Fold this sequence. Notes:
The complex is a heterodimer of chains A (363) and B (132). Chain A is built from 16 helices and no strands. Chain A is mainly α. Chain A is globular. Chain B contains 6 helices and no strands. In chain B, α3 (47-59) runs parallel beside α5, α4 (63-76) runs antiparallel to α5 and α5 (84-104) packs antiparallel against α6. The longest helix of chain B has 26 residues, at 3-28.
Amino acid sequence: MKYFALIGVLLVTVLAYQGVRQNEWVYEDTAMRIVAEGDPGLSVGVLGRNAARLSVWYPARWFGPSPVVQHVIQVSVHLLNGLLLFWVLRQVVKDVPALVGMALFLWAPIQVETAAYVASRPDLLMTTAILVAVGLTVGLPVPTDIPMSFAELGRSCLRGTGIILAVFLAISAKQTGVLVVPFLMLIRWVKEPDRRLGWAIAIAGCVACGLTLIPTIPADAGPLPYNRFWTAAYQSAAFWSLAGLVMWPHGFTIDMNIGAIAPIVAWMALAGVIGLAGLAWFVRRTHPILMLALVWLLLQLSPRFVLSLPEYLNQHQFYPAMLAVSLLLGLLITSTKTLGSTSRAAPHKAARRLAVAITEDYF
Amino acid sequence: MKSKHVLLVILGVWLGVQPFLTARRVSVFRSNLILWTDARDRHPDMPRARINIADAMWKAGMQQDAVQDLLAARNLLPAAPLALVRKKGYTFLVNVELGNIAAHEGRVADSQSFYLAAAMTDLRLVKFLNKP
């Protein structure tokens, strides 16, 4: 039954995205079009998005530089990411919540800007690598005093190698892939809390945020109209707008108009993000999975708090953040098991019970 | 009905409509013209959408429509909530595109004045004038 449902979700995704076969190269696809037509444009170092470029260049050598080929690859990687997400979610929640989380990840219209837009190949590939790294880290055994058998040791070594390769792929697909490093350390901390590891995570988080910024700082940005606090406020507004588009999937556009919102709303958005960070801190020991989901959301936004960037967070940049949204949905479904003990409950009482239930443990 | 069931029904309906909305959104990415027409219709006050739809129209041979959107973008730019670097870049682009269209239509004097306006935006951007 589980496998039928899984295949059903994948088939619906394929049907939803079947229109991509008719799509041309659009807007920033131009860079990938040049790669597909023969110039891989590889650069020295891992920050050049070489993995993403090669993933466009190599298939184009076999099947030609047609946009159809690249769009089929886009949707295929999106499907693969859905399956990997199911594998990761299945390690923390049961089948049905994991399946629903996967369905949201695959079906949400906010994902179209990534899955149907070849210029977003770095986000797609980075997410694949992140899911592999996270899935392998969740499954890593916690060291104990009991000696490991030879087979267990071999499996752990294989997992460790897989994690290192996946992190390398994530960073070489897109520089923000480096944010997975502090996150993997955090998963480790959840499995085995340690004060020194906590400090190491904080330092790694700061370094990762800084590293992601190096290639994004405009060389001749000139004086920007907003200071860092304003930028943080408007980036927060973008973050909530994208979260809103997931909740209420209407009004999508490639040209987000965040700068036009009222300053008070931007400040409230920033306060909301700080509130999320506070919630993650308070539930870190009691509800670690909820904490992990919130931290992953915030990690995706964090580099944008550091410097004034002229671009706002866009829909394709929300693709890895959707992993956390899917996990939150999985937790929500799981928590509904504690609801419904009484019939016809007043909505506010039901909402309160749900809020209490969602902060309970899920194992 | 139990509140659990109400919640699950709402979740089911919400999740069930997502693939249909996705299929509709996929068709927006069919071509530059469709993509930027959609963006302009949703945010008519955003210069970037106007500039990009003008570029798509120009390539599709719709010069007059392109000029209208470029002029609209030029009027919107001074008050647009954009970083200074973006404003300068877009002002440069608008003038270059208007200059290109004027040159294509044989209005040499007009095209020169647009190119001059582009150069005056930011001298550092002039290097892009000779690039395709």
